[in-house]
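TL;DR need structure tokens for one chain.
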Amino acid sequence: MECRTGCAACCIAISISSPIPGMEDGKPAGVRCVQLTADNRCSIFGHPDRPAVCSGLQASVDMCGDSDQEAFHILKRLEEETKPGF
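>> reply
TL;DR here they are.
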């Protein structure tokens, strides 16, 4: 499966604990990554500064569903289920 252009669910819905250029402490869940452009594309895609966790994500039906909205729902649920103390 290929990423849906402009979806950006994984760049917004989930927390990222790795440093991101412009977000040295990572980003909390639900916060838009500062590296997203206005059309929801990663401005550091393919650059060495891109966190390994980001480049390691692979689009899949289990993670992305059938629409951008479904991807947000799935990723938000996964984020909540993986919080300590859930």
